[in-house]
Amino acid sequence: MRYVRPLSLFRELLKTNVIKKGRLLGLDVGDKYVGLAVSDPLNKIATPLSVLLRKKTNIELMATDFQSLISELSLEGFIVGYPFDRQRCAPDAVKMKLFVDDLCNTEKLEGLKFTYWDESFTSKNVELLVKPLGLHPVHAKSIMDKFAAVGILQGYLDYVNKKVRLDSAEQGVSSQCK
Q1: CB-CB contact of 177 with 169 (8 Å)
Q2: What are the backbone angles phi and psi of residue 146, rounded to the nearest 5°?
Q3: Torsion-angle region of residue 111: left (phi > 0), alpha (psi -120 to 50) or beta?
Q4: Is the separation of the CB atoms in 151 and 143 below 8 Å?
Q5: CA triplet 141, 142, 145: central angle to 5 degrees?
Q6: Percent helix, strand and coil across the chain, each to the nearest 5
Q7: What is the pLDDT of residue 18?
Q8: What is the CA radius of gyration of the chain?
Q9: Is residue 94 very low, low, confident or very high in pLDDT (cuts 50, 70, 90)?
Q10: DSSP 8-state symbol, 133
Q11: How far apart, in whole angstroms, are the C-alpha atoms of residue 105 and residue 60?
Q12: Which residues on adjacent β-strands are paired with residue 23?
């Protein structure tokens, strides 16, 4: 796996063959579970996918699961939720980097690109939506993890699509002025 900056990942994705366009996978990494969300083929909309159990001992198995998802869904990159905090290094940020490092060390995801995206309040927002439904705690937790991943991925997709549109509009205006 190779880290790339958020806009670079998306711009590289746009350069790929339109017929064989790749998708992105959003990850909400928690202590026990990893929520997954996948983008549509046009990379506009995030959809909940599943939840993987996370243990120190099953990182090889998780990497194998990711390999399967990469081939099944034509994935080109991962958007990993990251707790950005400018004041201090958050303990969750260290856990996130260790998780990504562990995945990289398996060497099963070579060539895959990933970037970090701010996950601030994604879990809390989903929790506030799910809590009034009165679901069984296990079912509610699964829903919260998947939809937190949707929040991370959708936030990324909204940002990069808007940025690409604005850049295209600026180029159109500058070419008209010449």
Answers
A1: no
A2: -65, -45
A3: left
A4: no
A5: 85
A6: 55, 20, 25
A7: 55
A8: 17
A9: confident
A10: G
A11: 9
A12: 75
Phi, psi of 27 (to 5 degrees): -125, 125
Residue 76 contacts by C-beta under 8 Å, 6 or more apart in sequence? Answer: 12, 13, 16, 22, 23, 24, 112, 113
Domains in the chain, please, with CATH?
2-161 (3.30.420.140)
- Give the position of tokens 């998947």: 146
Q: What is the DSSP code string of 44-57? A: --EEEEEEEE--GG
Distance CA 112, CA 130 (A): 33
Pair 90, 83: CB distance under 8 Å: yes
Q: Cα dihedral angle (139, 142, 145, 150), rounded to 10 degrees?
A: -90
Q: pTM of the prediction?
A: 0.87
Tokens for 170, please give them: 């600026």
Query: Under a CB-based contact definition with an 8 Å cutoff, are residues 54 and 34 in contact?
Result: yes
**Within 10 A of 173 (CB to CB), how many other CB atoms are there?**
9
* CA pair distance 32, 162, nearest whole angstrom: 34
Output the average pLDDT for the chain: 87
